[in-house]
């Protein structure tokens, strides 16, 4: 039959041209209408794009959408083609169930959202894989017991990567890129040279240098970072600190902490108050917690160190709640505050440096 019938592959009919050029497709009366049952626009993927824009009657599909829009599932999405999420019912691309992720339980038997096992989100501990993790069972990462390969420990394993035993990896994970800027040298604002500040510049006149130092000391005293020069440094004049306030930061570390608290308040990475600090710990959003050693009574904040130990979060005490309140940007005293996590923050190097100093106090 194919011999008798001529080949018509090279012939295009009028209906083919009409379908390719989308003749007769009228634009929508207004943008944002539901087009979930419409066909895919042929011109949207072309370099020239679609001339109808948001009023095109066909769907504009992008490849960067990987999660189904939860508002579209209820018929409430108003963005249309401009939505960042998928407008199609795909069970494998549904968003994660909030209740199962937050409480590890969902009582809706017909829940359309994904129930992801929390254990699958936990990464393996690189220090435990090396042989020892100092956090032990309280580590936030997963500790997987494996049998070590004796041949690999001796120097060579003939089975290679196909060995049924564990080949330990002795390299630690690479530090984040933000820590590379932690050792950046200061730049003098007077001579523009690297390595010193303007207050210690040799090229600045003596009168200006003394005035800059006095101005800096006055600013620190206003924030409660250091004691005035006329105040005695004797331990007898200092108020007694409750021994339960451990670890207690010294004067140098207190100045760094309060300076970081002031910057974190500007970057909106600060939660003020004992209740807010507790919430950040429960949600896993806290980098470390600062508490006031002169809180009266101190028992109102003593539950926070226990929670920090449970969540493996550093914590430290400072002497004055008034100074902590001024650093937080308020006039009232603050007994506790929490520095929160923010990926890509400019404060990451300072936060990591203070975390290391706090951990040295806890040892």
From TrEMBL:
<feature type="domain" description="C3H1-type">
    <location>
        <begin position="148"/>
        <end position="170"/>
    </location>
</feature>
<feature type="domain" description="C3H1-type">
    <location>
        <begin position="119"/>
        <end position="146"/>
    </location>
</feature>
<keyword id="KW-0747">Spliceosome</keyword>
<dbReference type="InterPro" id="IPR004038">
    <property type="entry name" value="Ribosomal_eL8/eL30/eS12/Gad45"/>
</dbReference>
<feature type="zinc finger region" description="C3H1-type">
    <location>
        <begin position="63"/>
        <end position="90"/>
    </location>
</feature>
<dbReference type="InterPro" id="IPR036855">
    <property type="entry name" value="Znf_CCCH_sf"/>
</dbReference>
<keyword id="KW-0507">mRNA processing</keyword>
<keyword id="KW-0539">Nucleus</keyword>
<keyword id="KW-0694">RNA-binding</keyword>
<comment type="similarity">
    <text>Belongs to the eukaryotic ribosomal protein eL8 family.</text>
</comment>
<dbReference type="InterPro" id="IPR000571">
    <property type="entry name" value="Znf_CCCH"/>
</dbReference>
<dbReference type="InterPro" id="IPR018492">
    <property type="entry name" value="Ribosomal_eL8/Nhp2"/>
</dbReference>
<dbReference type="GO" id="GO:0008270">
    <property type="term" value="F:zinc ion binding"/>
</dbReference>
<dbReference type="GO" id="GO:0005681">
    <property type="term" value="C:spliceosomal complex"/>
</dbReference>
<feature type="zinc finger region" description="C3H1-type">
    <location>
        <begin position="148"/>
        <end position="170"/>
    </location>
</feature>
<dbReference type="GO" id="GO:0003723">
    <property type="term" value="F:RNA binding"/>
</dbReference>
<dbReference type="GO" id="GO:0005730">
    <property type="term" value="C:nucleolus"/>
</dbReference>
<feature type="domain" description="C3H1-type">
    <location>
        <begin position="63"/>
        <end position="90"/>
    </location>
</feature>
<dbReference type="Pfam" id="PF01248">
    <property type="entry name" value="Ribosomal_L7Ae"/>
</dbReference>
<keyword id="KW-0687">Ribonucleoprotein</keyword>
<keyword id="KW-0677">Repeat</keyword>
<keyword id="KW-0862">Zinc</keyword>
<comment type="function">
    <text>Binds to the 5'-stem-loop of U4 snRNA and may play a role in the late stage of spliceosome assembly. The protein undergoes a conformational change upon RNA-binding.</text>
</comment>
<protein>
    <recommendedName>
        <fullName>Cleavage and polyadenylation specificity factor subunit 4</fullName>
    </recommendedName>
</protein>
<feature type="domain" description="C3H1-type">
    <location>
        <begin position="35"/>
        <end position="62"/>
    </location>
</feature>
<feature type="domain" description="C3H1-type">
    <location>
        <begin position="91"/>
        <end position="118"/>
    </location>
</feature>
<keyword id="KW-0479">Metal-binding</keyword>
<keyword id="KW-0508">mRNA splicing</keyword>
<feature type="zinc finger region" description="C3H1-type">
    <location>
        <begin position="91"/>
        <end position="118"/>
    </location>
</feature>
<dbReference type="GO" id="GO:0006397">
    <property type="term" value="P:mRNA processing"/>
</dbReference>
<feature type="zinc finger region" description="C3H1-type">
    <location>
        <begin position="35"/>
        <end position="62"/>
    </location>
</feature>
<dbReference type="GO" id="GO:0008380">
    <property type="term" value="P:RNA splicing"/>
</dbReference>
<dbReference type="Pfam" id="PF18345">
    <property type="entry name" value="zf_CCCH_4"/>
</dbReference>
<dbReference type="InterPro" id="IPR029064">
    <property type="entry name" value="Ribosomal_eL30-like_sf"/>
</dbReference>
<dbReference type="GO" id="GO:0042254">
    <property type="term" value="P:ribosome biogenesis"/>
</dbReference>
<keyword id="KW-0863">Zinc-finger</keyword>
<feature type="zinc finger region" description="C3H1-type">
    <location>
        <begin position="119"/>
        <end position="146"/>
    </location>
</feature>
<dbReference type="InterPro" id="IPR002415">
    <property type="entry name" value="H/ACA_rnp_Nhp2-like"/>
</dbReference>
<dbReference type="Pfam" id="PF00642">
    <property type="entry name" value="zf-CCCH"/>
</dbReference>
<dbReference type="Pfam" id="PF14608">
    <property type="entry name" value="zf-CCCH_2"/>
</dbReference>
<dbReference type="InterPro" id="IPR045348">
    <property type="entry name" value="CPSF4/Yth1"/>
</dbReference>
<dbReference type="InterPro" id="IPR004037">
    <property type="entry name" value="Ribosomal_eL8-like_CS"/>
</dbReference>
